[in-house]
Amino acid sequence: MPYQLLKFALSKKHPEPAFFRQPAELKPSYDAVIIGGGGHGLAAAYYLAKEHGLTNVAVLERGYLGGGNTGRNTTIIRSNYLTPEGVAFYDASVKLWENLSQELDLNLFYSTRGHFTLAHTESAMRTMRWRAEVNKQMGVESEVVGPDVIQAAVPELDMSCSGHAPILGALYHKPGSVARHDAVAWGFGRAASEMGVEIFQNTEVTGLDIRNGRIAGVHTSRGTIKTGKVLSAVAGYTPRITKMAGFDTPIVIHPLQACVTEPMKPWLNTILVSGSLHVYVSQSSRGELVMGASLDPYEVHATRSTLDFVEGLSSHILDMFPFLAGIKVVRQWAGMADMTPDFAPVMGKTPVEGLYLDAGWGTWGFKATPISGKTMAHTLATDKPHELIHGFRLDRFRDFELTGEKGAASVGH
Amino acid sequence: MKLLTCPINGPRPLEEFAYGGEIREMPDPQTCSDSAWADYVFHRDGAPGPKREWWYHVPSGTWLVAERDTASDVVSRTYLLGEA
């Protein structure tokens, strides 16, 4: 080991390198305030500074950076959605993801694995064909494959699923990937901070200052800020913010749970999803199986874990991979998923002028991190919704013009 | 095991119940405006707190009302509609 490095490591003079500046005090006013220091909020801050030259921006986070749903998802990135609006939006996101490690100068462990959505019934096969055709039409790589292709990719998979749910085929999506989710928040946070954005952790929003239907400021646990533009990017906390703003949304909060096993040598190279068995699974770069399931069945605003979840999920994973019987689950956790009736997000303008929503991310938000940041930055800077998010506007519920994404957004519905 | 009290069958495991969502007053679809109908169908105050909700005891086919805090997940009361 070079002597200099050893000296540096042992010296007390060098503080730990900080990823972003932590200013001591809030300024009295900002050009824009972003509520929520997760991937989406920080990405919006990054693109505001980079593409719109707006750097007098504060990001307020009630906990720690990336500690919400950014750090609680199962890190799957894909664009094989069902509606043309969804496919175009998530495909634009995948294109940003592919170059993001270079752009943020941070290794996000972006790993393209291929993504199989297993079909166990004829009706599921029909949805897979439908999605494949929409995807191909939009230039996204998706195809329906038979059991032989699946078995060749995952020899360990019991194709009969213990006799309960024989696999008839799958939707195969080659660009399907995983990434290291914490690094995404840190990378966007660091890059935004370098351009002048100020990030405040442990800073909770306690109220909104709204005058004549326009946003005028934000009350926080550390004082009041004046601002004309506010972006709410708080996922499971969205209904608390919209209540402060005085309007209702269709968002309902359900916990979504996930867990990981102890690490194993690499054996699972692809991402597997089964709607019928309510399972999605991939192997992380440190060898753990990262597993998720369907939503908890009723509304709760908390991140508690349940034994029901881990029992049910384990049973289904063992149907697929009986040899995992001796493998231990080492951690489980939950996030608060902000669900919408059509399984598409809510993005854009609100009844309050100057207040913008990036919400309704339910169980599908992580993959959208870069594109939501980019499109919300555009929307906030120009006060005009980006064309990619037209189908996700809050008004669609008023206009009865929903963007039905239920068949592709998550499992078990 | 989490229990919920059915007004007919007493305390039963939560797995026996299905969630029916918050109780909402339906406007008359023949006379209300499109906007009021959209409010009824979609929009809600989703913030955490005490709510009146529909729950269904599946084995006995009983619809019941539960008063539950959606932040703490504590049920304070269950009863049949009209018996409150």
Features:
heterodimer, A: 413 residues, alpha+beta, FAD/NAD(P)-binding domain, D-Amino Acid Oxidase, Chain A, domain 2, 2 domains, six-stranded mixed β-sheet, 11 helices, 20 strands, 23% strand, B: 84 residues, mainly beta, Folate-binding fold, four-stranded antiparallel β-sheet, two-stranded antiparallel ribbon, 43% strand, globular
State the end-to-end CA separation of chain B. Answer: 27 Å
Q: Estimate what percentage of residues of chain B fall within beta strands.
A: 35-45%
Q: What is the chain-wise order of helices and strands of chain B? A: EEEHEEE
CATH superfamily of the largest domain in chain A: FAD/NAD(P)-binding domain
Largest sheet of chain B: 4 strands, antiparallel
Radius of gyration of chain B: 15 Å
Radius of gyration of chain A: 22 Å
Q: What sort of overall outline of chain A do the alpha carbons produce when their principal axes are compared?
A: globular
- Look at the structure and give the mean pLDDT of chain B: 95
CATH top level of the largest domain in chain A? Answer: Alpha Beta
- Counting structural domains of chain B, the number is 1
Name of the CATH first level of chain B? Alpha Beta
The quaternary organization reads as: heterodimer
CATH topology of chain B, anyone? Answer: Folate-binding fold
Helix content of chain B: under 10%
Q: Looking at CATH, which topology of the largest domain in chain A would you report? A: FAD/NAD(P)-binding domain
Low-confidence segments of chain A, given as residue ranges, are none
Fraction in beta strands of chain A: 15-25%
Q: Which stretches of chain B are poorly predicted, pLDDT < 50 over at least 5 residues?
A: none
